[in-house]
């Protein structure tokens, strides 16, 4: 499907999931980003009322725009100490079969609650739905052009 030809160092991805405060998975074909902010305490050290954040957001052009998005979504939090930006050129389902999604859920389970895991599962379903729409568009030809023209024989 969408997974051909892209090597991803899964061990490095998993290490970043385990260590970074904020992890983003960029899906260039979907023009969307899975934003995972694991922070539970605000800049002043007080517990956050809403816990970690998991959300599908539009892709941005640079890190400064991502930090601006985080400030808007999480105004009580300062700048994250660590952020990992992972370009994921594979299919959304590859997160699951590669073991990456399981590691994301485990990390969220350590720092969140049932609401955080439910938000993660909703975000995953949203990405899968977006991917199916994109695949359908590619098949029927809307928003896509063929590389080769059909020739009559």
Q: Can you describe what's shown?
A:
The protein has five helices and four strands. Helix 1 packs parallel to helix 4. 42% of the residues lie in helices and 15% in strands. The protein has a four-stranded mixed β-sheet, with helices on one face. It has 153 residues and is an alpha+beta fold. The protein has one domain (10-140). A hairpin with a 4-residue loop joins strand 1 and strand 2 (32-37). The model has no long low-confidence stretch (mean pLDDT 87).
| Overall pLDDT score | 87
Largest sheet: 4 strands, mixed
Give the uncertain stretches in residue-range form. Answer: none
Task: Give the percentage of residues in beta strands.
Answer: 15-25%
Q: Using the alpha-carbon principal axes, give the shape.
A: elongated
Rounded to the nearest angstrom, the radius of gyration is 17 Å
Strands, count? 4
Helix-strand topology string = HEEEHEHHH
Widest sheet: strand ordering: 3-2-1-4
Number of domains: 1
**Helix fraction by DSSP (H/I, runs of at least 4):** 40-55%
End-to-end Cα distance: 29 Å
By secondary-structure content and strand pairing, the structural class works out as alpha+beta
- Helix count, DSSP H or I runs of 4 or more residues: 5
Features:
single chain; 153 residues; alpha+beta; four-stranded mixed sheet; 4 strands; 42% helix; 15% strand
Could you outline the blueprint of secondary structure elements for this entry?
Blueprint: H1 10-19, E1 22-27, E2 32-37, E3 53-58, H2 63-73, E4 83-87, H3 93-97, H4 100-111, H5 114-140
Parallel strand pairs: 1-4
Antiparallel strand pairs: 1-2, 2-3
Helix pairs in contact: 1-4
């Amino acid at each position: 499907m969408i997974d051909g030809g892209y090597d991803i160092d899964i061990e490095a991805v998993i290490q970043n999931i385990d260590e970074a405060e904020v992890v983003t998975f960029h899906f260039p074909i979907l023009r969307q980003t899975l934003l995972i902010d694991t922070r539970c305490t605000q800049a002043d050290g007080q517990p956050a009322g809403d816990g970690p954040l998991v959300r599908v957001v539009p892709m941005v052009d640079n890190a400064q725009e991502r930090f601006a998005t985080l400030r808007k979504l999480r105004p009580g939090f300062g700048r994250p100490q660590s952020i990992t930006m992972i370009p994921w050129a594979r299919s959304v389902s590859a997160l699951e079969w590669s073991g990456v999604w399981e590691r994301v859920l485990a990390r969220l389970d350590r720092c969140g609650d049932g609401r955080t895991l439910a938000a993660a599962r909703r975000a995953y379903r949203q990405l899968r739905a977006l991917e199916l729409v994109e695949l359908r568009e590619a098949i029927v030809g809307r928003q896509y052009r063929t590389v080769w023209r059909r020739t009559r024989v």
